[in-house]
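job 3f2a | input accepted
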Amino acid sequence: MNQLLALLLPAIALAFPAMAQSPRGFPADWGKQLRQWEEKARAIPEAARIRGYMQRMSAEPHHAGSPGSRAVAEYAAGLLKEWGLDTRIEIFEALLPYPATRVVEMVEPVRFRAKLQEPVVAGDPDSGDSRQLPTYNAYSGSGDVTAPLIYVNYGVPEDYAHLKRMGVDVKGKIVIARYGKSWRGTKPKVAAENGAVGCIIYSDPRDDGYFQGDVYPAGPFRPPHGVQRGSVMDMPIMVGDPLSPGWASEPGSKRLKLEDAATLMKIPVLPMSYDDAAELLKELRGPVAPENWRGALGLTYHIGPGPAKVRIKLDFDNTTKPLYNVIATIPGAEFPEQRVLYGNHHDAWVNGASDPLSGASALLETARTLAALRKAGWTPRRTVQLALWDGEEFGLIGSTEWVEKHQADLEKNLVAYVNSDATGKGRIGASGSHSLESFVKELLSEVNDPVSGKPLIEGSRAGRDAGPGGDPFRLGSLGAGSDYVAFIDHAGIASLNFGFSGDAGGGVYHSIYDSFFWYTRFSDGDFTYGRTFSGLNTMLLMRLADSALVPFEFTALHKTVERFWGEIAKDAGRDLEKLDARELQSELGKLAASAKAFEAEYQAALKRWNTPTKEKVAAANAAIYRTERTLLAHAGLPGRPWYRHQLYAPGQYTGYSVKTLPGIREAAEAKRWQEANAQAKEVSKALRALSAELARITALLRGL
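job 3f2a | predicted structure (704 res):
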């Protein structure tokens, strides 16, 4: 459909399959009322409005700590207030280093100075905006180092193990690694652990450029001088302001000294385009890289060391700068203290049309939809909050500081946190707490893809690995890619993360080319998926806010933990006998029984619903949603106590990617069997606490 025509058409109700039974958590008569409000809600979101929000917010660079970020926050807050929502901006402060000096030059065998700059692209007016943040990695170490260069493939631990087998030592060298296979912060971390004095990260065209397709502006992929900015904070240790670990960083609050911060990189690290990187790589000799180490540059990939000798000189301002979180509230009528929260960040590395404004714009339209329903007479039973976080790109800072400030209240009252980030077109991705898997499965079965007309669940990226004959849907597990981390991993709040992707491949991530021009040309240009996404999240929030019993379910959780354990056992192979899992397997059996008993009484309570007292309903629901807290370990995970969840955490050397049953899994992978067995006892303790709590809740439900 022509994009302009699509935007000019009157709003069309989102396509939904026929729905017979009440949604999870609703008695039959309540379900009918909910369906009526959902029918009204489906007609409200408008693609043209989502387009307008994005165009306005992406017009100027708005990185965290800048006047542009404050302007975007104030614009969004102004809209929310205009729609009648109680809205405030909460200000925090954090270490947000900007680059002061950036030099990468080859001094031998030829002289070359890297451009470290992205050129203006004809046709994209935003590529020439002033106040663009230069290409750099936030939280890099400062320094001026000169050393021979070594190519280390993706720069992950197994690459260094291979180098050692080849007799290549990186100690005292500068390494160059390509983006991919792990969180970018892993690359300088592992480099430093192996004795390197500096690290360069570049985007190889095989992974992120012309090997994938036409480059921008002819196509969506990264052009030769495109650079991926990004934080290299050691996020698997903790997230948030590096100088206020575990407490909120507000104006005037205490700060660590820079040298005492645990999440800052120790060596200089800088990102680079593949055009600049080629000049360095072609001057390497030594062994030819293994075939699976070779990218798509027109050169032979040698490992080195040398004869290329490179100088890196980096310095940063290392100042504390303000962050602006926008929080809008729709008060609940019956249980105002119980809340559901939906958030997306608003800060970007540059203009950020895709990341994050595609998601932020859909969130604003969800807010407008809820505000319109409210004016039409809808009032949620529980309080609904919407948040636009600042500082996500630096290390999930705005959301983390907010959680640390309000943690006691959140642990008591927050039912669930729902997160989105960049969204586009294609299949829906869904990850989160497995106590909400059944809820998500139901929801995705009731919303249709705007192009194919099929239920979203049929194309869900979350279910693609379910296996032949298995359930077509499996909720993914959360790692550390966005603002849900502090909620689930630190505070134990059940969390979800959604977004469309898959049909808009591109390589402008964290570059100046992530612009309104790029997004409308290569991604969800008619905002059809954005409109569907807004409607999906509206439904989700209404169901969480209005359900008689919050829609948690624990059989899927039990099956998931059982699967996690099965994966660890399979990977252990012959070493399985070194894992003492008797207690864990016993607790899994008990959890299966307690989850089944809970579900039977949950359904029975809904069938006989006869206006139980408000106090009993509040107590039962609070107990249900607080079950996620039982999965926290007070002492946290080994070596990183900030992360407390026993089922999910980012891997210490994968970053964004999740490690499930992380305490056991990472110890077993490293063959630290004593630690693995100790962690198995911690997981057993958590499962035992969950089973006991489910038994208590089952009794509460029986009394409704």
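job 3f2a | The mean pLDDT is 94.
job 3f2a | closed
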